[in-house]
Amino acid sequence: MPPRSDAWRRQLIALRRHLDRWLFRVGPPETAPIVLGQRRIFVLPTPAGLAFATALLVMLIASINYNLSLGYALVFLLGGVSVASIVHAFRNLLHLSFTPGRAEPVFAGERASFHIVVANHRPARRPALRLTARGTVVPFEIGAGDSADLIVPAVTAGRGWMALGRVRIETTYPLGLIRAWSVLVPEQRCLVYPAPEPTPPPLPEGASRNLGRRTGSAGDDDFAGLRTHQPADSPRHVAWKTLARGGPMLTKQFSGMDGGEIHLDWSTLPAELGTEARLSRMTAWIVAAGQRGLAFSLALPDVRIATGRGSEHSANCLRRLALFGTDAADA
């Protein structure tokens, strides 16, 4: 049953993509900004709208049967209101502009946050809007000439690039009788790092000959003074109090145990570990080294990264782990 259900799921996804391309003219990711024109907005009655139409039909038949002039007036009045709601629902989406925002990297299993900026260039409020992506519904409204920064959360499963995919924008304004919607595919993705190993072994020993001795180099024990801030310095060592008082950006220096340079080498890991387990362990080591402000290098089968420290170095190494063995390794 599971293989058959997977095959059915793949067929349904392929059919949905084909219908999107044919009906909604949705193809590959679109470049920003994405503006909703007349041909991209579709209108259909909601279940409440179908019930309302049925009630109008019954009232019309009763008015014809009993020749009720007031019945005719009521039916045509309510029918005119429903037709006017079609125009309002359509105009509530017309010319909305969508621009993909940032999507910060996360670890596998965490929630990714996709930012989408929706702009309203008309001098009229856009109420009762809903944006749906990856099973999440985000209700919002936009003021006249204003914009909204929407956050779409999405659960991550595996490492690598995660695309936002198909996005649906819809509204049932003003009466809930008519549903206007459109489909778009923003060019937006989020980098997913491998999940860190929950209980990894200790970091590999540094290569320094002074391992375990007191030195005057950077450590994590005793405060030794301040120096000029470098881009590679860890944010946790910045003298924020000095900066808050209007002083220059300085970095705290500590004297402590010299851990030497840590070498994270793929080839030194146990042979019984699989690829994903190796990536998970090295991810945990990189996070631990970054939290302690240690310098480390990374050696993978396809790339070697020189020794460094700081958030940028850690992010570069985690990116290599996330894209290891994929076609997007150099993207």
From TrEMBL:
<protein>
    <submittedName>
        <fullName>Uncharacterized conserved protein, DUF58 family, contains vWF domain</fullName>
    </submittedName>
</protein>
<feature type="transmembrane region" description="Helical">
    <location>
        <begin position="41"/>
        <end position="64"/>
    </location>
</feature>
<keyword id="KW-0812">Transmembrane</keyword>
<keyword id="KW-1133">Transmembrane helix</keyword>
<feature type="region of interest" description="Disordered">
    <location>
        <begin position="195"/>
        <end position="220"/>
    </location>
</feature>
<keyword id="KW-0472">Membrane</keyword>
<feature type="transmembrane region" description="Helical">
    <location>
        <begin position="70"/>
        <end position="90"/>
    </location>
</feature>
<feature type="compositionally biased region" description="Pro residues">
    <location>
        <begin position="195"/>
        <end position="204"/>
    </location>
</feature>
